[in-house]
Write a structure and sequence with these properties.
Structural class: alpha/beta
Strand order of the largest sheet: 6-9-10-3-11-12
Shape: elongated
Number of helices: 18
Radius of gyration: 36 Å
Distance between the termini: 70 Å
Number of strands: 12
Helix content: 55-70%
Length: 583
């Protein structure tokens, strides 16, 4: 729990004033029944006795009104500070969790799953916020009413108060048993929320694919199954909570009936006034009500503790990609030379086969490296090691002669521009998306980058031009347009190393040729690494790597590979034959 104190500290005034102001409500709840009882017994009088009359009643009424006013002020103030404390605490906690997620490597994110992280950032923190608010309101109020009520009831009639001394332990045991059953069920419920969120995110993100394959009914069934599982787990957890209220109500009614029976006999015998009996009944109601409040607080705490555990898992996770041990944290990528020395890599430690096996090559600054190979040969995995999206398992990846692990992640990734295989644009204008490459770029620089990527033409044809709003993921532009915008965004970064991971696959060959030409003109001093399926995309590269099953099976220029590499020739002739068939 110590780690959460830093989120509470800025709002400690709220956390102190909230419970303190609730004490005024507690004082009123404790005092008012006794005052009411005295007003009845002494003001109105009982059988055989004359009351003190209207002046006494009026004076007590005025005092009671004063207490009620203080209770209102304290109650409103207590709720105000409790809500502010809980909301601000949870907001800072959510920011901290989000900041932590931003430090995660791809592997860390894969370990949690996107849906689970979304649930933890939303539903779990909401649960923590709710219990924090409840605790600030009830942590002092409920025990105060319980202790104060017992003391006041004992002071009026100790024999009647004995009923409480029997009832309270029994209720405590019942609540404990309920909580012991509820806790694991809440943990299961949160995991089912993860699954439902993942299913929802996947369906909404890929809705076009679902519709194009007419898989609506299938996905509805899968979603229905996830929803049913959540419903069942929620029911299993909530039925325990539902049992709490009847148990508490039954105990309250039994205690009230016993008190009325015994207290009525005492009152008839003249041992206690009607007002005092009424006060004791109110105290019993308050005490059992405070127990109910405590039980609900504990039950909600059990659910929140499951959420807190899940949040702690995120905060405790250390990214497997850090620059804490970097030797040259201030060093920048200045030339763009890339070298792999006996590099091997696999995504999971327990996986037997490596994705990349003993890879070694050198790319000189300013040159163009083409990488080609069949699907699954390890092309994307290879280039992701350069900006340290993953780390090599064996060997070294060097940039400008320095191991990438010795750079700060920021400086390394500032020097590397990467257009991933899956092109992603964000909600906002085209101009906003372009500024991911350089947030200080003016519109003329944005247009120049777009021209180099062959994107300025179609952007200018839009009614709002660069101010056109893109839908989530850039759904309102075509695949080829999206690729060119992503290339322009990377060009705006002016990287020393530019990596294009099959990022022109949706672009026609003529446009692709113009993009390659602009690379030579605009990024003459930058190293270009191009992954492609089409040999025409890399045919003019200074060097081409041919990958097969995670190994380099060919290295050289196009002409050299045509003479020495069977795999390269097979790819070349298969593509040439396809082009002839199409023509």
């Amino acid at each position: 729990m110590r780690r959460y104190l830093r989120f509470i500290k800025p709002y400690k005034l709220y956390f102190i004033l909230g419970p303190l102001l609730m004490l005024t409500e507690v004082a009123g709840e404790i005092v008012l029944p006794r005052m009411m009882g005295e007003m009845v017994d002494k003001g109105i009088g009982t059988e055989g006795a004359i009351g003190l009359g209207v002046p006494y009643i009026a004076a007590h009424a005025a005092m009671m009104i004063g207490f009620i006013c203080l209770m209102i002020i304290g109650g409103i103030g207590g709720h105000y500070f409790a809500i502010n404390g809980a909301v601000n605490f949870s907001s800072d906690l959510r920011k901290a969790v989000f900041d932590k997620v931003q430090t995660f490597s791809f592997k860390n994110i894969d370990d949690f799953s996107t849906g689970s992280l979304v649930t933890r950032l939303t539903n779990d923190i909401t649960q923590i916020m709710n219990i924090t608010r409840m605790v600030l309101i009830s942590a002092v109020r409920a025990p105060g009413m319980l202790i104060g009520g017992v003391i006041m009831a004992c002071s009026i009639n100790a024999r009647l108060a004995m009923i409480l001394l029997v009832m309270i332990p029994l209720l405590g045991i019942a609540i404990f048993l309920l909580l012991k059953t509820a806790m694991p069920r809440f943990t299961v419920m949160q995991s089912k929320i993860d699954m439902l969120n993942s299913r929802t995110q996947e369906n909404i993100t890929n809705v076009r694919v679902i519709k194009s394959f007419v898989r609506d009914k299938t996905e509805i069934k899968r979603f229905g199954k996830a929803s049913s599982e959540l419903c069942e787990s929620t029911y299993n957890a909530m039925k325990i909570v539902v049992c709490t209220m009847p148990v508490m109500t039954l105990a309250m009614n039994i205690a009230t009936l016993v008190t009325l029976w015994r207290g009525g006999n005492i009152t008839v015998a003249g041992g206690m006034g009607v007002g005092s009996l009424s006060a004791i009944i109110q105290y019993i109601t308050q005490i059992l009500g405070s127990l109910m409040m405590v039980s609900m607080m504990i039950i909600n705490s059990s659910r929140a503790s499951a959420s807190l555990k899940r949040i702690s898992e995120v905060l405790d996770t250390e990214s497997d990609l850090t620059d804490e041990n970097a030797k040259y944290k201030d060093k920048l990528v200045s030339e763009g030379k890339v070298e792999f020395k006996n590099v091997s890599f696999k995504y999971y430690e327990n996986r037997e086969d490596d994705v990349l096996k003993n890879i070694s090559f050198v790319v000189e600054p300013g040159s163009i490296l083409g990488i080609i190979g069949v699907t699954g040969s390890g092309k994307s995995s290879l280039v992701q090691l350069i900006p340290r999206l993953y780390d090599a398992v064996e060997g070294e990846v060097l940039v400008d002669g320095v191991n990438v692990k010795d750079y700060s992640l920021k400086n390394l990734r500032d020097g590397v521009g990467m257009v991933l295989q899956k092109n992603v644009l964000f909600s906002g204008t085209i101009e906003d998306n372009m500024r991911w490459g350089d947030e200080n770029a003016d519109i003329s620089e944005i247009r120049e980058a777009a021209k180099a990527a062959q994107a300025d033409g179609f952007v200018s044809s839009f009614t709002d031009g660069y101010n056109m709003e893109l839908g989530q993921g850039g759904v309102n532009v075509s695949g080829g347009q999206k690729q060119r915008l992503c290339i322009a965004r990377a060009l705006l970064k002016h990287p020393k190393i530019l990596i294009l991971d099959d990022s022109t696959s949706a672009v026609d060959t003529a446009t692709e040729a113009r993009i390659r030409e602009s690379f030579r003109d605009e990024l003459g001093g930058s190293t270009k690494i191009i992954i492609a399926q089409r040999i025409s995309s890399v045919i003019d590269a200074d060097k081409i790597l041919v990958l097969d099953d995670g190994r380099i099976v060919g290295e050289g220029t196009h002409d050299e590979l045509m003479r020495s590499c069977n795999e390269y020739r097979d790819i070349y002739y298969s593509q040439i034959n396809k082009e002839k068939e199409v023509s």
